[in-house]
Write a structure and sequence with these properties.
This protein has eleven helices and no strands. The chain is mainly alpha-helical.
């Protein structure tokens, strides 16, 4: 209960801090869509506001991530960003008011920036947990480190990206913010669950990079497949534009990440329950075997 209350409190504080900087990050023409490059203020000012707004949530999420499951800290930050992205709206107006497909190249850079910020959070949680475990040894051993360089971790990341890309193709059909947020969330929830199921020994760090891979791939595909603005709009209004290109970077950094973390954590809980059941079964078999041996000796 204490952990859940801490999670709710940190998430609420993060949402409050991000609400304070929401207005300047909206589109410069007053339309919908949260963006760093197309905000009402300049890009340096938008970056400064974002960094200022996440200072307190960042510290709190690192602390939360060091308390039992490290994914809690990532979840709290991404859920707060999901609220910001949902309130900001979809990208339909952005598509009408920017030169396409070239503007997708800017979105690639922006998604990398959002991902770098979340990567800094994951890295900070990993390093602080490692330091605390080395000094005090109080980190729960059931929860593996966020990053480890091995085949399982790499395989889980590739699987999560592949499943997330396929499901996003089928689920995200419009640029409506509700469709995008819930569609990305569901797609990557299943992606995280499947990846962790197939690669149970994997650290979650590589899986957390899946939204970045899918988003960048979707934007680059739009750059390659279309040659001018009318073609992109025709595909968009004719339902020919793939769903990966209908989400803004903030949606990949928030809704997709929230779904991914839930999927990984869901599988972790089920795996832990399976291990406990196996341990109980083994514990019950041991006395029975000892009794049988004793009876044979008599």
């Amino acid at each position: 209960m204490k952990r859940m209350l801490a999670l709710l409190a940190v998430t609420a504080i993060a949402i409050f801090c991000l609400r304070l900087i929401e207005s300047p990050l909206r589109a410069a023409d007053g339309s919908s869509g949260i963006s760093l490059f197309y905000a009402q203020v300049s890009f340096p000012a938008a970056m400064g506001l974002l960094l200022l707004g996440v200072v307190v949530p960042f510290a709190l999420c690192v602390g939360l991530g060091c308390w039992e499951n490290p994914l809690r800290g990532v979840f709290a930050m991404c859920l707060a960003l999901a609220v910001l992205g949902h309130r900001g709206g979809g990208m339909a107006n952005w598509m009408r008011t920017h030169e396409l497909p070239g503007a997708y190249g800017v979105l690639v850079v922006e998604l990398v920036i959002w991902s770098a910020l979340l990567g800094a959070l994951v890295g900070a949680i990993h390093l602080v947990r490692k330091s605390l475990a080395g000094r005090y040894g109080w980190i729960d051993p059931r929860h593996r480190p966020l990053w480890r360089l091995d085949v399982d971790t790499f395989g889980a990341g590739v699987t999560a990206a592949a499943v997330g890309a396929i499901l996003t193709w089928f689920i995200v059909q419009t640029a409506d913010v509700g469709q995008v947020v819930w569609g990305l969330g569901l797609s990557f929830l299943l992606a995280g669950f499947v990846a962790h199921y197939i690669w149970p020994a994997a650290a979650p760090g590589a899986m957390l990079a899946a939204p970045l891979v899918v988003g960048v791939g979707g934007y680059l595909a739009a750059l390659v497949l279309y040659s001018n603005h009318p073609e992109v709009l025709a595909a968009f209004y004719g339902s020919g534009l793939h769903g990966h290109a209908k989400a803004l970077p903030v949606h990949y950094a928030s809704a997709a990440m929230v779904g991914l973390v839930i999927g990984i954590a869901w599988r972790q809980v089920l795996a832990e329950g399976e291990r406990e059941s196996e341990n109980r079964a083994k514990a019950m078999q041991t006395p029975a075997s000892a009794s049988a041996v004793a009876g044979t000796g008599q």
